[in-house]
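PROTEIN DESIGN WORKSHEET
SECTION A - STRUCTURE
LENGTH: 320
C-ALPHA COORDINATES:
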Protein backbone atom coordinates (compact mmCIF):
# COMPACT_ATOMS: atom_id res chain seq x y z
CA UNK A 1 0.00 0.00 0.00
CA UNK A 2 2.80 2.41 0.83
CA UNK A 3 4.43 1.79 -2.54
CA UNK A 4 1.10 2.38 -4.33
CA UNK A 5 0.52 5.65 -2.49
CA UNK A 6 4.03 6.76 -3.34
CA UNK A 7 3.43 6.00 -7.03
CA UNK A 8 0.16 7.91 -7.00
CA UNK A 9 1.81 10.94 -5.43
CA UNK A 10 4.59 10.83 -8.01
CA UNK A 11 2.04 10.62 -10.85
CA UNK A 12 0.11 13.57 -9.45
CA UNK A 13 3.35 15.56 -9.25
CA UNK A 14 4.04 14.79 -12.90
CA UNK A 15 0.53 15.87 -13.94
CA UNK A 16 0.83 19.14 -11.99
CA UNK A 17 4.13 19.96 -13.66
CA UNK A 18 2.60 19.23 -17.06
CA UNK A 19 -0.39 21.48 -16.33
CA UNK A 20 1.93 24.30 -15.31
CA UNK A 21 4.04 23.91 -18.45
CA UNK A 22 0.93 23.77 -20.67
CA UNK A 23 -0.49 26.97 -19.11
CA UNK A 24 2.84 28.75 -19.62
CA UNK A 25 2.98 27.74 -23.28
CA UNK A 26 -0.63 28.81 -23.83
CA UNK A 27 0.09 32.24 -22.31
CA UNK A 28 3.16 32.65 -24.49
CA UNK A 29 1.19 31.65 -27.58
CA UNK A 30 -1.57 34.18 -26.79
CA UNK A 31 0.93 37.00 -26.36
CA UNK A 32 2.60 36.17 -29.65
CA UNK A 33 -0.36 37.30 -31.84
CA UNK A 34 -0.50 35.63 -35.23
CA UNK A 35 2.64 33.68 -34.51
CA UNK A 36 0.83 32.20 -31.54
CA UNK A 37 -1.08 29.89 -33.86
CA UNK A 38 2.13 28.22 -34.89
CA UNK A 39 3.36 28.21 -31.32
CA UNK A 40 0.10 26.61 -30.14
CA UNK A 41 0.38 23.96 -32.81
CA UNK A 42 3.90 23.17 -31.72
CA UNK A 43 2.96 22.97 -28.09
CA UNK A 44 0.01 20.69 -28.91
CA UNK A 45 2.23 18.27 -30.80
CA UNK A 46 4.75 18.40 -27.98
CA UNK A 47 2.25 17.68 -25.21
CA UNK A 48 0.78 14.86 -27.28
CA UNK A 49 3.94 12.80 -26.71
CA UNK A 50 3.27 9.83 -24.47
CA UNK A 51 5.31 7.25 -22.71
CA UNK A 52 5.41 3.55 -23.49
CA UNK A 53 2.35 2.86 -21.33
CA UNK A 54 0.19 5.72 -22.69
CA UNK A 55 0.69 8.21 -19.83
CA UNK A 56 1.75 11.81 -20.59
CA UNK A 57 5.50 12.28 -20.95
CA UNK A 58 6.92 13.86 -17.75
CA UNK A 59 9.12 16.91 -17.74
CA UNK A 60 12.89 16.59 -17.37
CA UNK A 61 12.99 17.66 -13.70
CA UNK A 62 10.05 15.55 -12.60
CA UNK A 63 11.28 12.54 -14.58
CA UNK A 64 14.68 12.83 -12.89
CA UNK A 65 13.16 12.95 -9.41
CA UNK A 66 10.82 10.10 -10.30
CA UNK A 67 13.60 7.89 -11.66
CA UNK A 68 15.70 8.33 -8.52
CA UNK A 69 13.01 6.59 -6.44
CA UNK A 70 11.38 4.21 -8.91
CA UNK A 71 12.46 1.89 -11.69
CA UNK A 72 11.80 3.42 -15.10
CA UNK A 73 11.37 1.09 -18.08
CA UNK A 74 13.45 2.32 -21.00
CA UNK A 75 13.00 1.36 -24.62
CA UNK A 76 15.94 -0.60 -25.98
CA UNK A 77 18.25 1.27 -28.37
CA UNK A 78 17.80 0.54 -32.07
CA UNK A 79 19.61 -2.52 -33.40
CA UNK A 80 22.81 -1.81 -35.26
CA UNK A 81 24.09 -3.77 -38.24
CA UNK A 82 27.47 -5.35 -37.61
CA UNK A 83 29.44 -6.69 -40.59
CA UNK A 84 30.26 -10.37 -40.37
CA UNK A 85 33.99 -9.69 -40.41
CA UNK A 86 33.61 -7.49 -37.30
CA UNK A 87 31.78 -10.10 -35.22
CA UNK A 88 33.77 -11.18 -32.18
CA UNK A 89 32.23 -14.60 -31.69
CA UNK A 90 30.22 -17.09 -33.72
CA UNK A 91 26.54 -16.73 -32.82
CA UNK A 92 25.37 -19.81 -34.72
CA UNK A 93 24.10 -22.70 -32.57
CA UNK A 94 25.20 -25.87 -34.35
CA UNK A 95 23.60 -28.34 -31.94
CA UNK A 96 20.16 -27.66 -30.48
CA UNK A 97 18.57 -30.07 -27.98
CA UNK A 98 14.78 -30.33 -28.10
CA UNK A 99 13.29 -31.66 -24.88
CA UNK A 100 14.76 -35.09 -24.24
CA UNK A 101 16.09 -35.31 -27.80
CA UNK A 102 19.68 -34.19 -28.29
CA UNK A 103 22.09 -34.51 -31.24
CA UNK A 104 24.86 -37.09 -30.96
CA UNK A 105 27.95 -36.84 -33.13
CA UNK A 106 30.89 -39.22 -33.30
CA UNK A 107 34.31 -37.88 -32.39
CA UNK A 108 35.49 -38.12 -36.01
CA UNK A 109 32.36 -36.55 -37.54
CA UNK A 110 32.51 -33.01 -38.87
CA UNK A 111 29.74 -30.41 -38.76
CA UNK A 112 30.15 -27.08 -40.55
CA UNK A 113 29.82 -24.00 -38.32
CA UNK A 114 26.71 -22.84 -40.20
CA UNK A 115 24.91 -26.21 -40.14
CA UNK A 116 22.18 -27.03 -37.61
CA UNK A 117 21.51 -30.32 -35.85
CA UNK A 118 18.28 -30.16 -33.85
CA UNK A 119 16.74 -32.91 -31.77
CA UNK A 120 17.33 -36.64 -32.27
CA UNK A 121 20.17 -36.60 -34.81
CA UNK A 122 22.98 -39.17 -34.96
CA UNK A 123 26.18 -38.71 -36.95
CA UNK A 124 28.34 -41.82 -37.13
CA UNK A 125 32.11 -42.04 -37.66
CA UNK A 126 33.54 -39.67 -40.29
CA UNK A 127 30.12 -38.41 -41.34
CA UNK A 128 30.05 -34.80 -42.48
CA UNK A 129 27.35 -32.13 -42.58
CA UNK A 130 28.16 -29.11 -44.72
CA UNK A 131 27.37 -25.40 -44.70
CA UNK A 132 23.76 -24.35 -44.29
CA UNK A 133 22.39 -27.89 -43.93
CA UNK A 134 19.60 -28.50 -41.42
CA UNK A 135 18.99 -31.90 -39.81
CA UNK A 136 15.83 -31.69 -37.72
CA UNK A 137 14.94 -34.63 -35.52
CA UNK A 138 12.20 -33.03 -33.48
CA UNK A 139 9.63 -35.76 -34.24
CA UNK A 140 11.77 -38.77 -35.13
CA UNK A 141 15.35 -39.89 -35.58
CA UNK A 142 17.71 -38.71 -38.33
CA UNK A 143 20.85 -40.83 -38.84
CA UNK A 144 23.83 -40.24 -41.13
CA UNK A 145 26.01 -43.32 -41.54
CA UNK A 146 29.76 -43.90 -41.69
CA UNK A 147 31.66 -41.69 -44.15
CA UNK A 148 28.39 -40.36 -45.59
CA UNK A 149 27.94 -36.66 -46.26
CA UNK A 150 25.06 -34.21 -46.30
CA UNK A 151 26.13 -31.28 -48.42
CA UNK A 152 25.26 -27.57 -48.50
CA UNK A 153 21.71 -26.36 -47.79
CA UNK A 154 20.21 -29.84 -47.51
CA UNK A 155 17.18 -30.35 -45.28
CA UNK A 156 16.63 -33.68 -43.53
CA UNK A 157 13.49 -34.13 -41.49
CA UNK A 158 11.51 -37.04 -40.06
CA UNK A 159 7.77 -37.23 -39.47
CA UNK A 160 6.24 -38.81 -36.39
CA UNK A 161 4.66 -41.54 -38.52
CA UNK A 162 3.85 -42.28 -42.16
CA UNK A 163 0.48 -42.93 -43.72
CA UNK A 164 1.67 -46.21 -45.28
CA UNK A 165 2.94 -47.52 -41.95
CA UNK A 166 6.56 -47.54 -43.13
CA UNK A 167 9.40 -46.49 -40.79
CA UNK A 168 9.27 -42.73 -40.29
CA UNK A 169 12.92 -42.19 -39.36
CA UNK A 170 15.31 -40.71 -41.94
CA UNK A 171 18.33 -42.99 -42.32
CA UNK A 172 21.36 -42.63 -44.61
CA UNK A 173 23.64 -45.64 -44.97
CA UNK A 174 27.42 -45.92 -45.30
CA UNK A 175 29.53 -44.15 -47.96
CA UNK A 176 26.51 -42.29 -49.37
CA UNK A 177 26.39 -38.77 -50.76
CA UNK A 178 23.52 -36.29 -50.45
CA UNK A 179 24.30 -33.47 -52.84
CA UNK A 180 23.45 -29.78 -52.21
CA UNK A 181 19.88 -28.51 -51.66
CA UNK A 182 18.29 -31.95 -51.43
CA UNK A 183 15.24 -32.43 -49.21
CA UNK A 184 14.70 -35.77 -47.45
CA UNK A 185 11.70 -36.52 -45.26
CA UNK A 186 11.13 -39.86 -43.51
CA UNK A 187 13.02 -41.83 -46.16
CA UNK A 188 15.94 -44.24 -46.39
CA UNK A 189 19.11 -44.12 -48.47
CA UNK A 190 21.19 -47.28 -48.66
CA UNK A 191 24.95 -47.80 -48.68
CA UNK A 192 27.15 -46.34 -51.43
CA UNK A 193 24.32 -44.39 -53.02
CA UNK A 194 24.09 -40.88 -54.46
CA UNK A 195 21.15 -38.49 -54.18
CA UNK A 196 21.61 -35.65 -56.66
CA UNK A 197 21.33 -31.96 -55.92
CA UNK A 198 17.83 -30.47 -55.48
CA UNK A 199 16.25 -33.92 -55.19
CA UNK A 200 13.15 -34.42 -53.06
CA UNK A 201 12.56 -37.73 -51.28
CA UNK A 202 9.11 -37.98 -49.74
CA UNK A 203 7.77 -40.10 -46.90
CA UNK A 204 8.45 -43.81 -47.13
CA UNK A 205 10.66 -43.61 -50.21
CA UNK A 206 13.74 -45.79 -50.49
CA UNK A 207 17.01 -45.58 -52.43
CA UNK A 208 18.65 -48.97 -52.21
CA UNK A 209 22.36 -49.79 -52.05
CA UNK A 210 24.45 -48.67 -54.99
CA UNK A 211 21.68 -46.63 -56.65
CA UNK A 212 21.73 -43.10 -58.06
CA UNK A 213 18.95 -40.52 -58.13
CA UNK A 214 19.68 -37.86 -60.76
CA UNK A 215 19.70 -34.14 -59.79
CA UNK A 216 16.31 -32.45 -59.61
CA UNK A 217 14.36 -35.69 -59.25
CA UNK A 218 11.31 -36.17 -57.04
CA UNK A 219 10.80 -39.60 -55.47
CA UNK A 220 7.13 -39.98 -54.51
CA UNK A 221 5.98 -41.56 -51.24
CA UNK A 222 6.70 -45.29 -50.86
CA UNK A 223 8.59 -45.38 -54.19
CA UNK A 224 11.76 -47.52 -54.38
CA UNK A 225 14.92 -47.11 -56.46
CA UNK A 226 16.36 -50.63 -56.84
CA UNK A 227 20.01 -51.54 -56.43
CA UNK A 228 22.35 -50.60 -59.26
CA UNK A 229 19.88 -48.39 -61.15
CA UNK A 230 19.76 -44.75 -62.22
CA UNK A 231 16.43 -42.96 -61.82
CA UNK A 232 15.54 -39.42 -62.85
CA UNK A 233 12.59 -37.08 -63.36
CA UNK A 234 9.64 -35.70 -61.43
CA UNK A 235 8.26 -38.14 -60.53
CA UNK A 236 11.39 -40.25 -60.76
CA UNK A 237 11.45 -43.11 -63.28
CA UNK A 238 13.93 -45.79 -64.32
CA UNK A 239 16.58 -44.59 -66.79
CA UNK A 240 19.16 -47.38 -67.04
CA UNK A 241 21.34 -49.82 -65.17
CA UNK A 242 24.63 -48.58 -63.74
CA UNK A 243 27.82 -50.12 -65.08
CA UNK A 244 30.19 -51.97 -62.78
CA UNK A 245 32.69 -49.11 -62.94
CA UNK A 246 30.01 -46.58 -62.02
CA UNK A 247 28.93 -48.63 -59.03
CA UNK A 248 32.53 -49.02 -57.85
CA UNK A 249 33.08 -45.25 -58.09
CA UNK A 250 30.18 -44.40 -55.72
CA UNK A 251 32.19 -45.25 -52.62
CA UNK A 252 35.08 -43.12 -53.84
CA UNK A 253 32.78 -40.09 -54.14
CA UNK A 254 31.96 -40.25 -50.42
CA UNK A 255 35.60 -40.81 -49.49
CA UNK A 256 36.75 -37.77 -51.50
CA UNK A 257 34.16 -35.60 -49.77
CA UNK A 258 35.36 -36.84 -46.40
CA UNK A 259 38.97 -35.97 -47.21
CA UNK A 260 37.91 -32.40 -47.89
CA UNK A 261 35.88 -32.35 -44.66
CA UNK A 262 38.92 -33.61 -42.76
CA UNK A 263 40.99 -30.75 -44.18
CA UNK A 264 38.40 -28.22 -43.03
CA UNK A 265 38.16 -29.84 -39.61
CA UNK A 266 41.93 -29.65 -39.15
CA UNK A 267 41.92 -25.97 -40.12
CA UNK A 268 39.36 -25.03 -37.45
CA UNK A 269 40.39 -23.76 -34.05
CA UNK A 270 39.64 -26.19 -31.21
CA UNK A 271 36.86 -25.38 -28.79
CA UNK A 272 38.22 -23.68 -25.70
CA UNK A 273 38.12 -20.68 -23.41
CA UNK A 274 40.50 -18.34 -25.22
CA UNK A 275 37.68 -15.85 -25.58
CA UNK A 276 37.83 -15.25 -21.82
CA UNK A 277 41.38 -13.98 -22.13
CA UNK A 278 40.26 -11.62 -24.87
CA UNK A 279 37.42 -10.29 -22.72
CA UNK A 280 39.74 -9.75 -19.74
CA UNK A 281 42.24 -7.92 -21.93
CA UNK A 282 39.52 -5.72 -23.43
CA UNK A 283 38.04 -4.92 -20.01
CA UNK A 284 41.49 -3.92 -18.72
CA UNK A 285 42.03 -1.53 -21.62
CA UNK A 286 38.56 -0.05 -21.21
CA UNK A 287 39.20 0.47 -17.52
CA UNK A 288 42.46 2.25 -18.28
CA UNK A 289 40.71 4.57 -20.75
CA UNK A 290 42.53 3.17 -23.77
CA UNK A 291 39.79 3.01 -26.38
CA UNK A 292 40.92 1.86 -29.78
CA UNK A 293 39.77 -0.46 -32.54
CA UNK A 294 41.20 -3.95 -32.18
CA UNK A 295 41.16 -6.83 -34.65
CA UNK A 296 39.68 -9.46 -32.37
CA UNK A 297 40.77 -12.36 -34.58
CA UNK A 298 44.39 -11.25 -34.51
CA UNK A 299 44.15 -10.67 -30.78
CA UNK A 300 42.84 -14.19 -30.19
CA UNK A 301 45.74 -15.66 -32.12
CA UNK A 302 48.21 -13.42 -30.28
CA UNK A 303 46.87 -14.40 -26.87
CA UNK A 304 46.88 -18.07 -27.73
CA UNK A 305 50.44 -17.86 -29.08
CA UNK A 306 51.59 -16.06 -25.95
CA UNK A 307 49.98 -18.70 -23.78
CA UNK A 308 51.67 -21.49 -25.73
CA UNK A 309 55.04 -19.77 -25.35
CA UNK A 310 54.56 -19.52 -21.60
CA UNK A 311 53.73 -23.22 -21.42
CA UNK A 312 56.84 -24.09 -23.45
CA UNK A 313 58.97 -21.86 -21.24
CA UNK A 314 57.65 -23.61 -18.14
CA UNK A 315 58.45 -27.00 -19.64
CA UNK A 316 61.98 -25.91 -20.51
CA UNK A 317 62.56 -24.50 -17.04
CA UNK A 318 61.21 -27.66 -15.45
CA UNK A 319 63.50 -29.78 -17.65
CA UNK A 320 66.58 -27.83 -16.66
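SECTION B - SEQUENCE
RESIDUE ASSIGNMENT:
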Amino acid sequence: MAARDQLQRAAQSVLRSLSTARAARAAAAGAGGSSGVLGNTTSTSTTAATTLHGAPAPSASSAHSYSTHHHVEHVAPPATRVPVQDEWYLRQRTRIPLGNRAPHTAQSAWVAPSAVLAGDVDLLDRASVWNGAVLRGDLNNVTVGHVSNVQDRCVLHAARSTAAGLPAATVIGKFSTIEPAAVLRSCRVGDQSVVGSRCVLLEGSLVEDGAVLAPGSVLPPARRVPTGELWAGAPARFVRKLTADERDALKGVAESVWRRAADLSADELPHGTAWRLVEDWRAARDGAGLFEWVDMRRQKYALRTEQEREVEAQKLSAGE
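SECTION C - NOTES
The chain has three domains: 2-69, 93-264, 274-319.
The first helix runs from residue 2 to 31.
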